[in-house]
Design brief:
There is one protein chain. Residues 1-15 have low confidence and may be disordered. The termini are far apart. This protein folds into 7 domains: 15-77, no CATH class; 80-139, no CATH class; 142-201, no CATH class; 204-261, no CATH class; 271-325, no CATH class; 328-387, no CATH class; 390-450, no CATH class. The chain has helices spanning 23-39, 42-50, 54-58, 69-75, 85-101, 104-112, 116-119, 131-137, 147-154, 157-164, 167-174, 178-184, 193-199, 209-225, 228-236, 240-244, 255-261, 271-288, 290-298, 302-306, 317-323, 333-349, 352-360, 364-367, 379-385, 395-412, 415-422, 426-432, 441-450. It has 29 helices and no strands.
């Protein structure tokens, strides 16, 4: 047989001088067969020849020459279905025997045409759903993570988490989604930087352009020396989630970071750009280097571009709305009544907010002012449906609100909740009161007039 094709070694920045596994490699390995692998010296020999880590190679290729489900998934991502709640219900009913009969988890994944790696996030080999799967089937029954929970978790320590049965058990015990819990708590008992930031929001600094320049100069080695992105965030006293919007672990700024340092050179997105982007298609976007590449080429902020253009080449609903503003209907009270009756299930069935907006021919950004993803109307929507029942805002209310402070507003549930409690329209309240507890200039002026003083 002819010698197996050689794949050129490439320096991709992978650790230890190793190359990154590409789809081209997978195609080549798939043609080797068992004989070709043996001729190359087994899987270890193939890994040495192609300069990739052998442990990584074994995630994709078997010794018999067949690709693993992970390898097949990577070669055919577009042919895979999305995991649905209906699938989870079906898998939950299989049990261990049903999974074995289907050929194990890989067999279930093949049968239902979903990536095996994704399936394993939801289903265990013994037939039970993972905590993530349970959470997804019961989202409404979950509690929100509170600061009090974080305080309790921070006292657990490694021993306490182990005694509870691990992070999954802590999540069950507190009735919170395990994926959300892992954003705040580590298996060793320490809070993540996100958890620390949440418990100490007032002590954090704002990210400045000077910080971005300093971070840009760090490089990957400088970030690693500082203890990774979490270490940089701690050192500069900024929230780690905010930092990650601007800085990558490899030392490069994100497109948002680059945009912020170069705001002057950025142009505004025009309708002509939207028409050009619409004509690109998925292939044109890929050829340009993805959405970030299109943003760089057209000198627009990548974050702004993503509001209008999807990676598959289609415009978002906002983009479509902008190109055809005259064809949009106004949102009416009848629409609000219909949307209120939809519920979360009805919104999902319609294709989410974008689907409802398309169906009723209204701008999706306007729709979001009135309707929440869980099917409830926003306070603005409720106010519009019951305008006659609302009270007028009085100076006494302004005095009460001024005394609340930021803590009092948070305790009441935010500005929307204050508006509900005092039965005033939330939009009217926001003319007078800020979320930080201070009155706006309009509110201050109204109290000054009441006291007989000259408004500012």
């Amino acid at each position: 047989m002819p010698p197996p094709a050689k794949i050129p070694r490439q320096k991709t920045g992978a650790s230890g001088g190793k190359a990154t596994i590409t789809r081209a490699m997978l195609q080549t390995w798939k043609t080797l067969g068992q004989a070709g692998i043996e001729a190359a010296g087994g899987l270890d020999g193939v890994a040495r020849r192609d300069n990739v880590p052998v442990t990584a190679l074994k995630n994709y290729l078997r010794a018999d020459g067949s690709l693993t489900p992970l390898g097949e998934d990577r070669l055919n991502p577009g042919g895979k279905a999305k995991i649905t709640d209906a699938m989870l219900q079906t898998w939950n009913a299989l049990g261990q025997a049903g999974i074995k009969a289907a050929g194990g988890l890989d067999g279930v994944a093949r049968r239902d045409k979903v990536p095996a790696g994704a399936l394993r996030k939801y289903l265990r080999a013994d037939g039970r759903l993972t905590q993530r799967g349970e959470d997804r089937l019961n989202p409404d029954g979950k509690a929100k993570i509170t600061d009090a929970m974080l305080q309790t978790w921070t006292t657990l320590g490694l021993a306490g988490i182990k005694a509870a049965g691990g992070l999954d058990a802590v999540a069950k015990q507190n009735n919170v989604p395990v994926t959300a819990l892992r954003n705040y708590l580590r298996a060793d008992g320490s809070l993540t930087q996100l958890g620390e930031d949440r418990l100490n929001p007032g002590g954090k600094a704002k990210i400045t352009e000077a910080m971005l320049r300093t971070w840009k100069a760090l490089g990957q080695a400088g970030i690693e020396a500082a203890g990774g992105l979490d270490g940089v965030a701690r050192r500069d006293n900024v929230p780690v989630t905010a930092l990650k919007n601007y800085l990558r672990a490899d030392g490069r700024l994100t497109q948002i970071g680059e945009d912020r340092l170069n705001t002057v050179a950025k142009t505004k997105i025009t309708d002509a750009m939207l028409q050009t982007w619409k004509a690109l298609g998925q292939a044109g976007i890929r050829a340009t280097g993805g959405l970030n590449g299109v943003a760089r080429r057209d000198k627009v902020p990548a974050g702004a571009l993503r509001k209008y253009l999807r990676a598959d080449g289609r415009l978002t609903q906002r983009g479509e709305d902008r190109l055809a503003p005259g064809g949009k209907a106004k949102i009416t009270e009848a629409m609000l009544q219909t949307w209120k009756a939809l519920g979360q299930t009805g919104i999902k069935a319609a294709g989410g907010f974008d689907g409802v907006a398309r169906r009723d021919n209204v701008p999706v950004t306007a729709l979001r002012n009135y309707l929440r993803a869980d099917g409830r109307l926003t306070q603005l929507g409720e106010d519009r449906l019951t305008p006659g029942r609302k009270a007028k805002i009085t100076e006494a209310m302004l005095q009460t609100w001024k005394a609340l402070g930021q803590a009092g507003i948070k305790a009441a549930g935010g500005l929307d909740a204050v508006a509900r409690r005092d039965n005033v329209p939330v939009m009217a309240l926001k003319h007078y009161l800020r979320a930080n507890g201070s009155l706006t200039q309009l509110g201050e002026n109204r109290l000054l007039r009441k006291a007989g003083a000259q408004p500012m």
